[in-house]
């Protein structure tokens, strides 16, 4: 009986921990007041729902207004400067904006998007400035 209980706890604890970790990066709803790029994909201003996929490496953005969506690979980023806020961080070069990071306050999760060709090229001509859009959820 003791072996069965031990086996049950060995199997149940990782499942509970995985479920809790997955719940920590819930969907963010963010209103973005400007057009922007995710990777090389142009996105229009509007309200977006941002999620991490189950593997926690791919970001999914879906436009509530445009019904346009995009997936993007991401890497772990340093903890947010304001850990009590959910936020999208953009880098502005001239009049163009590129999504660069996503921060979830709950669980202190931060993901950084990879720079693509369009952003690398424009960064050669302009100095980047960070702009933050906070989440309503």
How is this structure best described in words?
The chain has 137 residues and is an alpha+beta fold. It has one domain (25-134). It has 2 helices and 10 strands; from the N terminus they run αβββββββββαβ. It has helices at residues 2-24, 117-123, and strands at residues 28-32, 36-38, 41-43, 46-52, 58-63, 69-76, 87-93, 96-104, 109-113, 129-134. An 8-stranded antiparallel β-sheet has the order 1-4-5-6-9-8-7-10. Strands 2-3 form a two-stranded antiparallel ribbon. It is globular. The protein starts with a helix and ends with a strand. 26% of the residues are buried.
How would you spell out the order of helices and strands?
HEEEEEEEEEHE
Main β sheet profile: 8 strands, antiparallel
Instruction: Give the count of helical stretches.
Output: 2
- Total number of β-strand segments? 10
Gyration radius over CA: 18 Å
What's the end-to-end separation, in Å?
A: 46 Å
- The residue-averaged pLDDT reads 82
Provide the structure class: alpha+beta
The structural domain count equals 1
Strand order of the largest sheet: 1-4-5-6-9-8-7-10
Helix content range:
10-25%
Global morphology: globular
Low-confidence stretches: 7-23
Strand content: 35-45%
Structure described in brief:
The protein is α+β, with helices and mostly antiparallel strands and 137 residues long. It has one domain (25-134). The protein is built from two helices and ten strands; from the N terminus they run H-E-E-E-E-E-E-E-E-E-H-E.
């Amino acid at each position: 009986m003791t072996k069965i209980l031990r086996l049950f706890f060995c199997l149940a604890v990782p499942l509970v921990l995985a479920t809790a970790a997955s719940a920590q990066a819930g969907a963010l709803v963010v209103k973005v007041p400007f057009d922007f790029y995710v990777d090389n994909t142009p996105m229009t201003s509007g309200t977006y729902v941002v999620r991490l996929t189950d593997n926690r490496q791919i970001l999914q953005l879906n436009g509530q207004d445009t019904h346009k969506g995009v997936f993007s690979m991401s890497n772990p980023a340093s903890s947010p400067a304001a850990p009590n806020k959910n936020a999208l961080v953009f880098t502005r070069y001239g009049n163009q904006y590129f999504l660069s990071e996503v921060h979830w306050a709950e669980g202190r999760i931060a993901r950084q998007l990879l720079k693509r060709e369009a952003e690398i090229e424009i960064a050669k001509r302009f100095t980047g400035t960070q702009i933050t859009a906070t989440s309503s959820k």
